[in-house]
Each structure stands twice: as structure tokens, then as C-alpha cells.
Amino acid sequence: MDxxxxxxxxxxxxxxxxxxxxxxxxxxxxxNFLAELPILRSVNHLGGxxxxxxxxxxxxxxxxxxxxxxxxxxxxxxIDKSSLAQSMITHTPYFSNLLKEIWVAFAxxxx
Length: 111
Description:
It is a single chain. The protein is an all-alpha fold. It has one domain (3-110). Helix content is 86%, strand content 0%. It is built from five helices and no strands. Helix 1 (3-30) runs antiparallel to helix 2 (38-69). The protein is elongated. The mean pLDDT is 83. It is found in: Membrane. The chain crosses the membrane at residues 6-34, 46-67. InterPro entries: Colicin-V_CvpA (IPR003825). It is a multi-pass membrane protein. Keywords: Membrane, Transmembrane, Transmembrane helix.
């Protein structure tokens, strides 16, 4: 698989990721009345903080991973110079492997 094909597949993956997030946000807002129950309110705040951190981490990871596949040298240079970006890409092996498997499986379906 060439670099340009991987780049376009990464863009498609990000679009699907965003669409899924929008759908889940709509579903979550319909169930928002449960969050107002007194017992669940404190659990909801803590759980929201944990899930919010996980969500932002995953979004940043996918953007950095997709950016590392782009054929634009400025983006790759910026990622190479960032120790935080390098750390996120190399120290998140589960998602790195999962993302590779998804793209390979997707390539098998198309090609």
C-alpha cells in the first residue's frame, strides 16, 4: 500500500470516527435525564472526566497517526520533532496495531 492510499484511508477513517461521535452524542443527549438523578450525579462527574480524557487522547492519537502517514514533509517533520507526539504514537501499541489491522483489512476489501 503506497503512502497516498494510506493517507486517503486515514481521512476516511477520521470522517467515520467523527460521524460515529456525532451519533453517540445525540444518543447521549437523549439519555441526559439520567444524569440529573442525585445518586448518579457524582458518579457522572467522575466518569465524564475519565471518558473525556480518553476521548481527547484517542482523537489526538488518531490525528497524529494519520499525520505521520501524510506525504507532507512539514507535518512529518513537526511530528518527528515533538517528543509528546512520538511518545503517544510509540507508547500506544494497542491502538497502533488496531489501526494497522483496520487499514489492512479495509485494503483487502477494496483491492
